[in-house]
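WARN no homologs supplied; continuing
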Amino acid sequence: MSRHDVLIQPQGAVLQEYFDSDMTIQVIRGPLGSGKTIMSCIKIIELMRKQEPNSDGARLSRWVAVRNTYSELFSTTIKDWLECNGYLGEFKQGGKEPPTQRLKFKLLDGTTVEAEMIFVAFDRPDHVKKARGLQLTGVWLNEMKEIPKPVVDMLDLRHGRYPSKKEGVVCTWHGMLGDTNAPDEDHWLYTLAEEEHPKDWAFFHQPGGVVKDENGEWQVNPYAENADNLPVNYYLRGMQGKSEDWIKVNLGNEYGFVSDGKPVHPRYIDSTHCINLASWVPAKQVPIILGFDFGRTPACAFLQKTSTGGWICFDEFICENMSALTFAPELAKYLKTEYFGYKFRGWGDPSGDAGNQSTDRTPIQILRAAGIPCSPTGSNKSLLRRAAVEVPLTEVGMDGRARLIILPKAKTIRKGLAGGFCYKRVLVSGEPRYHDEPDKNSYSHPVEALEYGLQGEGEGRQVVAGKNTRRPTVKTAMKTKRKQRR
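OK structure emitted
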């Protein structure tokens, strides 16, 4: 057996803290290229090595590495693990069993590490079933933000079970390690890290690969970790051709939302259109506009027109698996509680003025019966609806802001505009291709409610009619601001 001498030298202070930690659950968040995944691979071997040996001199442990899909499990997780630790044991795949590496190597003190690393993705029900019954030492949650919280909760009850007294020794350490890029602010990881701070969890936040300078421009961060192991100009090149929000999340390591699909509203820029107007409240002398999308996931968008001709979307009301008969009284209660004394005007999908087989009343009639005003828009053609949002997104009002502003409270609409409401990618080789119709998901209904509200108020008509309003656009306004800073 050949001898391998390994020198462990984490390339950054946060990587070192992560490596040294002995907390039960440890999560490291960093930008692309920060070395967090490789450090997880190294740390797991170190934990295997530190496991107390049994009477036979064997240091026993069993781990599971988790990813959301098998394609990503093989293309990244398994690839990174084997590049780092493949020489330490035999790797097998195929058949009914999940891909597994059985590690066996001797240490200088004469003891032997005998460990398993089992690779599981949660798009294979047969492998999920096996994971639920595993007796584990530890769990590796690779790209943790992509893994559903219920899966993490289930795995949190599987570690600490091997080795046990039956093997002659118990776990020296047991727990979960997670590495991830930055999630968005509505993610369960954000809630745990920034708000709840659970007792046995430790969160490690690496510096971004890029940071903003005093002019608000992205620059390479001289304090980025693992920089010596990256190609020349890695982050400088990485910014080219990328959106502001993509850079913010993937290179800047800041919380935010990025979609894999093609956004239905590509002109939405979160850093421009989402503003936290902490002191703003809707004016009582101006009606609140309610936009509605019906179906089994009914949604309502709340809007108000500003004195400068713009719009503020400040709230949303969304239900799942609910009929209009249930939705209407629930919304009426919300309006009475949150917006008592306001006047309302509502607009909805004109198909909501048509009856169905289960009831003689239409969704619009049901809303009216509950005291909520709603009228059908002139059309539900997608071109008209999309233009109703695109026009105020791209135009600048007299106050210098975009004519459509989204407040953080309308969080689902915000994420939908940022790309959650999208055309899904078609899985073909070559140039990216997308479906012709938007994906119907949890973001599509509230965004379409926003579209109907603005369409009912007349937005977008001038574009469909071929007229040019000659208003300044968001893009030209941003260019003007940059010139002024220089």
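The mean pLDDT is 89.
OK
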